[in-house]
Write a structure and sequence with these properties.
The strands form two sheets. The chain has a six-stranded parallel sheet, with helices on both faces. The chain has a six-stranded mixed sheet with strand order 7-6-8-9-10-12, with helices on both faces. It has two domains: 43-148 and 294-308, Response regulator (Rossmann fold, 3-Layer(aba) Sandwich); 150-292 and 326-336, Rossmann fold. It is elongated. It is built from eleven helices and twelve strands. 44% of the residues lie in helices and 18% in strands. The relative contact order is 0.12. The longest helix has 27 residues, at 2-28. The chain has helices spanning 2-28, 55-67, 85-97, 114-122, 150-167, 187-202, 218-230, 243-255, 275-282, 297-308, 331-336, and strands at residues 43-49, 74-80, 102-105, 127-130, 144-147, 175-181, 206-213, 237-240, 267-272, 288-291, 316-318, 323-324. By secondary structure, the protein is of the alpha/beta class. Strand 3 (102-105), helix 4 (114-122) and strand 4 (127-130) form a beta-alpha-beta unit. The structure holds alpha-L-arabinofuranose.
Length: 339
């Protein structure tokens, strides 16, 4: 009888302890008002970046890293493709394997994405394209794109050129243009080239003396312009599809004893408007810097947040841009800029 009472009280005791433990565990997972605390879940984003070929690209990478930070609720998996598409394909497949929540792609070129984006679609991972565009058989292979209107940039440049040589009274005289192109097949290259080609077609005196493939880097452009100048061919204008290639061209021109500036031997038209280029513009070596805005991080973060909220973001978002020439610029304005 006594033994039975002892066993019963032991059972009662262990039930009581278990209840207390359960209650303790439950309240440990509660906030001040006994509301269960949800562990903040980070949004996992795989970002495949083109490379680090230019000042523009570095500013773009910095913008993406700062917007897609843990502080802002993201876990960013960053991959630098070093200007090779095969590296981007590999990175995207890795992101799919890691089952990220979103893939962000800054594509090196427009073509070659169908298969890998089909794989992302089958895995149910939304893909956001940033900066350059892609050409795919089915636009549903990506969710949204944000970037620059590269054709409008090119048109801004050639309109400026036309206005400037009209002012100089030489609109109907021959104009010899050296064209330094960016990476083949990139939207920035295709559209900036198209704007120049369209302008050359409508100005009988304008000729493209040579096209150099500068791959958006200063080193490559320097070598190519140096070798071109060694042939002794004469030019009036350099249309350079980014600032870093302009830096290389300026170095080659100066070494060859050729001056650059609007009223000098060679006029330089440059794209991006990064801080160092704006300085060269203020000092007169670059005649016009056409702006290409790299600060896409917050824009991409906002697209993701729209998707998280169940909204359908715009398929294409073009950013507002302008251009700078020496008359518009000041040291103060340059210092205020973010890149
Ligand atoms: O796609 C944008 C272009 O890529 C920028 O003009 C260039 O500097 C960069 O590398």
């Amino acid at each position: 009888m006594c033994k039975r009472i002892l066993t019963a009280s032991r059972i009662l005791y262990s039930v009581l302890i278990s209840l207390i433990l359960c209650a303790a565990l439950f309240t440990a997972g509660c906030g001040q008002n006994n509301v269960p605390v949800q562990e903040e879940k980070l949004i996992r984003v795989g970002f495949s970046q083109v490379g680090s070929e230019s000042d523009w690209r570095m500013a773009n990478t910095a913008s993406m890293i700062s917007a897609l930070s843990e502080e802002n609720g993201f876990e960013l998996i960053f991959d630098n493709a070093k200007q090779r598409q095969e590296n981007q394909l590999l990175a995207i497949r890795n992101f799919i394997q890691q089952d990220v929540d979103y893939i962000v792609l800054a594509p090196i070129a427009e073509s070659g994405w169908d298969d890998v984006l089909q794989e992302a679609k089958e895995a149910g991972i939304p893909v956001i394209i940033v900066d350059r565009q892609i050409a795919v058989s089915d636009d549903d292979l990506y969710t949204s794109w944000v970037g620059s209107n590269f054709l409008a940039e090119g048109q801004r440049a050639v309109r400026w050129l036309e206005g400037t040589i009209r002012q100089q009274g030489r609109l109907n005289q021959p104009l010899r243009i050296l064209h330094i192109q960016g990476t083949d097949g990139a939207t920035a290259q295709i559209q900036r080239t198209k704007a120049l080609d369209d302008a050359v077609r409508t100005h009988p005196g304008w000729t493209i003396v040579s096209r150099l493939k500068g791959e958006y880097t200063e080193a490559k452009a320097y070598e190519l312009v140096r070798d071109f100048l060694a042939t002794g061919q004469q030019i009036d204008v350099i249309y350079s599809e980014n600032d870093n290639m302009s830096f290389g061209a300026i170095r080659a021109l100066e070494e060859a004893g050729i001056s650059c500036g609007t009223d000098k031997d060679v006029m330089i038209i440059s794209f991006d408007a990064v801080r160092d280029a704006l300085r060269q513009c203020l000092e007169g070596r670059i005649s016009i810097c056409v702006e290409c805005n790299p600060l896409h991080g917050p824009r991409v973060a906002s697209l993701i947040m729209q998707l998280e909220a169940g909204e359908i973001p715009a398929k294409l978002t073009y950013v507002d841009e302008t251009f700078f020439s020496p008359g518009i610029l000041s040291e103060e304005l340059i210092n205020e800029r973010e890149y």
